[in-house]
Amino acid sequence: MNRRTDRHLANALAHPDITAGFGARDWEALIGQARTSDLLGQLAEVLRDAGDRVTVPEPVLFHLDAALRIAALHRQSLLLELAVIASALSALGEPVVLLKGGAYAVAGLRAGRSRLFGDIDLMVAKASLDPAEGALFRHGWRPTHLNAYDQRYYRQWMHELPPIEHFTRGTVIDLHHTIVPPTSGHIPDPARLIADARPVQVPHCPDIFRVLSPVDMVMHSACHLFYGELQKGLRDLYDLHCLIGEFSSEESFWERLLPQAQAHQLEYPVLLALRFAQRVFGTAVPEAIAEECDRRLGRRWTGALTDHLIDASMYALHPSSDSTWRRARRHILYARSHWLRMPLHLLIPHLAYKAFIHDEARVG
After folding, report:
1. CA distance 99 to 325
2. Domain that holds residue 227
3. Residue 333 lies in a domain
4. pLDDT tens digit sequence for 64-105
5. Is residue 25 within 8 Å of 58, Cβ to Cβ?
6. What's the structural domain count of the chain?
7. 82 within some domain
8. Strand ranges of the sheet holding 164-166, from the earlier edge strand across to the other edge
9. Strand, coil or helix: 122
10. In this predicted structure, which of 79-93, 252-266, 287-301 has the lowest mean pLDDT?
11. Considering the domain boundaries, does residue 358 fall inside one?
């Protein structure tokens, strides 16, 4: 690993002008880091927006243009799939909340520009899970986790049902009823999240889709990142950087963010999100709130260790930015993510099952 190139992607996304001094080796590292982080389309957008301030070599333009074309196809596929989903779920007679990348894209947010989509995340009221799942089954989706343990794991402990996949198109849907696993000990109010969600227009769809309010969207993005395994840590943190930057101008956003997170028992991941977005991308955070983050996180005896571990996930999984020690820290983060989501009396049997009894079942 070359220490001079390991932050190229984060730096270029935040300050594209730095690429003005790049040589061939720098560009090679930057494109490789962006590709392995699923951020090549976003990098292309940032460099295009920089205009004349940045001169991109012709061989690099080939990769950037290809990423933009692929992202456009992903967006088209998403919209077509949402039309089918809307047809399936419109009979529920209640809102269906789009989450994560799909929400960013249909809401026209910067975080959704030229993004790749691996699955579609939806949230409905818990009482509507069975009717929603049944409606999707009737329109061609099928469960992907068929053994009894996996079904119990998701349905009893998790915040979502087992992923379902369309039997011909291969589209995967994650159907949520809340935003963090109930076993985590944090109990947000999903009814309030759905009630506060904002309508969003999706072409050729019935008016059923919503997206979380700005404060709730940032809160959920923070939970997804810091209670997860941080496999795509840099991409997810860039989402937060974009969301915070875009929502900062909304009236009362900063006044509501931490109190809302506290009301939903999700203040910790939001504090981490603000700290790392500011640290990695230079996200503008009001001084008083930045000081509050430092004060609150600094009180935790695990604060310095957590910072050190999480930092490893904010580098691309690419030879120019990876190291043995960072890989080791990511393995620890994997264990940490399960510990945050499950108490020990559930976690130990669960990990034992994954490791020794049913290794091929990659659940959680």
Report:
1. 33
2. 8-353
3. yes
4. 999 999 999 999 999 999 999 999 999 999 999 999 999 999
5. no
6. 1
7. yes
8. 141-143, 164-166, 172-176, 120-123, 96-99, 209-211, 198-199
9. strand
10. 287-301
11. no
CA dihedral 318, 281, 42, 86 (to 10 degrees): 110
> Quick one: pLDDT at residue 77?
95
Instruction: Tell me the backbone φ, ψ of residue 98, rounded to 5 degrees.
Output: -80, 140
Whether 97 contacts 197, CB under 8 Å: yes
**The pair of three-digit structure tokens given for residue 225, joined into one six-digit string:** 């990142």
Q: In which residue are the tokens 């310095």 written? A: 304
Residue in this structure with the two tokens 């720098």, named with its chain if needed: 26
pTM for the model:
0.89
Which run of H or of E encompasses 64? helix 58-89
Compute the distance between CA of residue 273 and CA of residue 275 in angstroms, rounded to an integer: 5
Number of Cβ within 10 Å of residue 297's Cβ equals: 18
Would you say 132 and 185 are in contact if contact means Cβ atoms under 8 Å apart?
A: no
CA dihedral 17, 19, 21, 22 (to 10 degrees): 180
Q: Is residue 359 part of a domain?
A: no
